[in-house]
Amino acid sequence: MDQCQSDYRVLREFLALPHRADAVLERFAALPRAIRKTCGPGEGFVYLPGIRENAVLLVAHADTVGSETLEVELAEGEKTIRNRYGILGADDRAGCAMLWLLRDTGHGLLVTDAEECGSVGSKFLIREFPALFDEINSRYQFMIQIDRCNAADFKCYNVGTEDFRSYVREKTHFSEPDRNRSTDIVHLCRDICGVNLSCGYYREHTDEEYLVKEEWRNTLEILRSWLSEKDIPGFPTA
């Protein structure tokens, strides 16, 4: 099996999982060195510390919008993947699949719960694990969340400097449509910059949701090249 086929196999595995956050969190929690924390509804995350120099923290969320009991049957064409029974859940199973494929790069991984409900899992980390919150803001050069629709967008919201935005454009050739709304990095990035990248899904949160396979893999290949660089610079928020 070549690399492209292997990548798409992992993508299908994540998209085919039940729409329960635990289905994803349990998979990441089984990795060596993984730290899983849970409490009340939506209060949970799995963290895998980075081990390389100049590490980046990669972020995705395990929850989806829609019923946890929704049946999933993938309908895959030459270019796209859908769920025959409604919401695909690529927001954010597409990002989680990418983190899984990048798990051996030496960079840190953080998979959160309940991003769709107001970043409950991230706020749980910040509130209950202040030492870990300090660690992720001092150990890493910046954060990359993979949780954005479309093919070639990035968003830094209010956690990116102009220097960091220029750096992201250089590395991805993506553009920032606006700085509106919020996601996990808006809460998690206290001292370092963060960016959210497109991963090829469209019409999220609806029964018409679909993912464009080549667009998803383009972001993956950008990240493989970017994260393999020896000297990744740091970007403090101030």
Give a topology summary.
Layout (H helix, E strand, L loop, with lengths): L2 H13 L5 H9 L5 E4 L5 E5 L8 E5 L12 E3 L3 E4 L6 H12 L6 E5 L7 H9 L1 H9 L4 E6 L5 E2 L6 H11 L11 H5 L5 E5 L2 E2 L7 E3 H15 L11
Can you put this structure into words, describing what you see?
With 238 residues, the chain is α/β, with parallel strands linked by helices. The chain has a single domain (3-227), classed as Zn peptidases (Aminopeptidase), CATH 3.40.630. It is 35% helix and 18% strand. It has helices at residues 3-15, 21-29, 90-101, 120-128, 130-138, 162-172, 184-188, 213-227, and strands at 35-38, 44-48, 57-61, 74-76, 80-83, 108-112, 143-148, 154-155, 194-198, 201-202, 210-212. Strand 4 (74-76) and strand 5 form a beta hairpin. Helix 1 (3-15) crosses helix 3 (90-101). The radius of gyration is 16 Å and the shape is globular.
Instruction: Describe the global form.
Output: globular
CATH structural class: Alpha Beta
Rounded radius of gyration (Å): 16 Å
Main beta sheet: strand number and arrangement?
7 strands, mixed
- Main sheet strand line-up: 1-2-6-3-7-9-8
- Which topology does CATH recognise? Aminopeptidase
User: What is the straight-line distance between the termini?
Assistant: 46 Å
Number of domains: 1
Structural features:
Aminopeptidase, alpha/beta, globular, 238 residues, four-stranded antiparallel sheet, 11 strands
Write a compact overview of the structure shown:
This protein has 238 residues and is α/β, with parallel strands linked by helices.
